[in-house]
Amino acid sequence: MPPDWLETIAWVSLALAAICAALVAWDILGRGYRQPMRIMEAVWPITALYLGPLGLLAYRRWGRPKSNRYQREHGETGRRPFAVRVGVSASHCGAGCTLGDIIATWVVFAAGLTVAGLALPYEYLFDFTFALALGIAFQFWSIRPMRPELARGEVVRRALKADSLSLTAFEIGLFGWMAIMQLVLFTDPHLPPDTASYWFLMQVGMALGFLTTYPVNIWLIRRGIKEAMS
Fold first, then answer.
1. H-helix or E-strand spanning residue 84
2. How many CA atoms lie within 13 A of 203 on its CB side?
């Protein structure tokens, strides 16, 4: 079992992240700051689940001002800086990866899948599969509103092309950290996902994943493979 001090920090971090995600969701759905691109109404709260207060701050500064209500109250906000547009674009694959990783981790844990007592190989396989499926779905609903004239199959093709490399870069950062968690920090026994410490460390890994996918998103956007958020 993880040490008590780590569990305490973990519960505080997870609770704070949950509050931040709830505040974002309430602001969008409860207070009416609806996003012009509907998929962002899922992306912003999920981002807050692993970035916590930073995710909430990013939403308040760059997400809420894009809502129709905000622009009626304060006027047009204009185009966001390129660095911000890249970050928002990266958050799409980050949200899909995060959701996929959460689902896959619990599937592997519930099924008791291990190799030589280590769940990590199955976690890699299932995490990447779920993340790919959800990441492409998130990217599909990003492209669709911007390019409604495209056929559904073409949107799927573009979503796969835009997000496969982006989410792979995200998972490289996350998977590297997961290896450190299980092979360096907690070796005997391995840290299980039914502890708060596991998910706190996964928050760290997801933040690292965002950092590793960010430069890839710059490349994808500059090459015209992926659309930057306006």
1. helix 82-111
2. 24
Q: How far is the CA of 16 from the CAs of 7, 8, 13, 21, 96, in angstroms?
A: 14, 12, 5, 9, 21
Domain boundaries, the chain: 4-222
Instruction: List, for residues 211-222, the tens digit of each pLDDT value.
Output: 999 999 999 888
Task: Give the pLDDT of residue 7.
Answer: 92
DSSP line for 94-162: HHHHHHHHHHHHHHHHHHT--BTTB-HHHHHHHHHHHHHHHHHHHHHHHHHHH-TTS-HHHHHHHHHHH
The tens digit of pLDDT for each residue in 163-222 reads 788 888 999 999 999 999 888 988 777 888 889 999 999 999 999 999 999 999 999 888
Contact 97, 49 (CB under 8 A): no
